Write a sequence for this structure.
């Protein structure tokens, strides 16, 4: 059963490990690496072994450039770290998230069927974490939010409130892509299975809106809305209008009719429009850290201040409006004061620590992935409309293209409100690998 699909099993195992709790038995966050991080290293080793056994060149020229250029900027910034240990730690983390794990996923996921399997793995993980989050909200055992332990954080704990929100958002985007795209139309039996699959994916997408709402994560809400809108528009105007109607109806029923729309949730939604006129303290802190990051870049515009050096330079560039940290509690973890060690904006973090060299290398690679992914999706849609012609007539793969483009758009938008760090960081690496598999896979040439 798993003979031909065995290489993708480690990727699915990595996703499954993200469902494990990240807090110790005493209710404290153990920090540092996780089991999923260890598994990501195993993933890289397996990909290298597989590439050596197959022989030949594992990556074609475009893939080598997209994933090779960031190594230059990261390595240069590592030399500017405060010490060798800090530089090595930052270099390893960046290479893990943005180069090694994505390339491993690109090499291990070798067919569209396996890519769909990984997408369903995202959906399954989101359902597990989302289910835990809904239970936390209903029983008052979540992370502290406005004086009540109701914030849905899944197994990630209050110190990584974006963890569950990211997982659930990935699940929504993957489910929407599977529901909107076409997989393998053919005979009547296969066509019936296609309808069931797409219907099941749509049900999962709608169900995951509940834990997404209860995460109280404005950045995840915005990124998900943008990604799903992009997916709908990429399917064509007719499907886009129908999709907007379904999602709007689902939002009205879930937020209004079922009772998800609490006063706190409504206030959180309203705060999105007040981030400029009347920002809360978390937004004020974010603005202060963004200004600090820009100040660091202006001081060292080419190579930045060095990997993991943002905390050391923060106070010299931040305004007095910046608070000393954020309070976290709940979800089985005692009260903690979390220091503000990053600007919570991936682009500004890279700009401040790696300068223009690092930002152009990393963001340029992400932009290239998006362009190539969208271009391939359009080609797949043309084959789909053309009918039964060519070797791929039974598998246009538009569902794979839609989920890959959606995941990449979500991540690029979310990077405007968040950066890497925490137990869910490895999810970003797998997501970039999924996008790379569609945009740069061997069958994309």
């Amino acid at each position: 059963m798993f003979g031909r699909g065995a290489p993708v099993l480690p990727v699915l195992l990595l996703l499954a490990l993200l469902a494990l709790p990240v807090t110790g038995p005493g209710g404290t966050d153990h920090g540092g690496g996780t089991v999923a991080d260890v598994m990501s290293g195993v993933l890289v080793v397996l990909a290298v072994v597989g590439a050596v056994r197959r022989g030949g060149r594992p990556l074609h020229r475009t893939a080598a450039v997209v994933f090779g250029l960031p190594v230059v900027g990261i390595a240069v910034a590592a030399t500017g770290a405060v010490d060798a240990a800090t530089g090595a730690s930052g270099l390893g983390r960046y290479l893990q998230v943005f180069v090694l794990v994505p390339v491993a996923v690109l090499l291990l996921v070798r067919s569209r069927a396996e890519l769909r399997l990984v997408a369903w793995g995202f959906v399954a993980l989101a359902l597990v974490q989302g289910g835990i989050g809904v239970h936390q909200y209903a029983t008052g055992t979540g992370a502290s939010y406005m004086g009540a332990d109701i914030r849905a954080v899944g197994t990630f704990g209050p110190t990584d409130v974006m963890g569950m929100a990211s997982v659930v958002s990935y699940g929504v985007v993957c489910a929407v892509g599977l529901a909107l795209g076409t997989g393998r139309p053919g005979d009547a039996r296969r066509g019936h299975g296609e309808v069931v699959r797409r219907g099941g994916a749509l049900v999962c997408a709608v169900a995951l809106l509940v834990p997404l709402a209860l995460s109280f994560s404005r950045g995840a809400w915005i990124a998900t809305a943008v990604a799903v809108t992009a997916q709908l528009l990429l399917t064509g105007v007719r499907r886009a209008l129908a999709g907007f109607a379904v999602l709007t109806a689902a939002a009205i029923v879930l937020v209004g009719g079922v009772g998800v729309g609490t006063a706190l949730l409504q206030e959180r939604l309203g705060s999105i429009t007040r981030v400029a006129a009347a920002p809360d303290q978390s937004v004020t802190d974010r603005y202060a850290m963004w200004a600090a990051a820009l100040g660091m870049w202006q001081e060292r515009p080419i190579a930045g201040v060095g990997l993991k050096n943002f905390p050391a330079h923060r106070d010299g560039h931040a305004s007095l409006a910046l608070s000393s940290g954020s309070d976290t509690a709940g979800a089985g973890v005692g009260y903690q004061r979390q220091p503000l060690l990053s600007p919570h904006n991936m682009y500004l973090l890279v700009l401040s620590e790696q300068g223009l060299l690092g930002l152009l290398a990393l963001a340029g690679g992400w932009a290239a992935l998006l362009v190539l992914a969208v271009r391939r999706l359009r080609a797949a849609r043309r084959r789909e409309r053309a009918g039964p012609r060519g070797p791929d007539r039974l598998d246009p793969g538009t569902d794979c293209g839609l989920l890959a483009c959606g995941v990449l758009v979500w991540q690029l938008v979310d990077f405007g409100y968040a950066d890497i760090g925490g137990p869910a960081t490895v999810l970003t690496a797998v997501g970039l690998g999924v996008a790379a598999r569609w945009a740069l896979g061997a069958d994309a040439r």
Notes: The radius of gyration is 22 Å. The CA atoms of residues 114 and 233 lie 25 Å apart. The chain has one domain: 9-15+34-275+343-444.
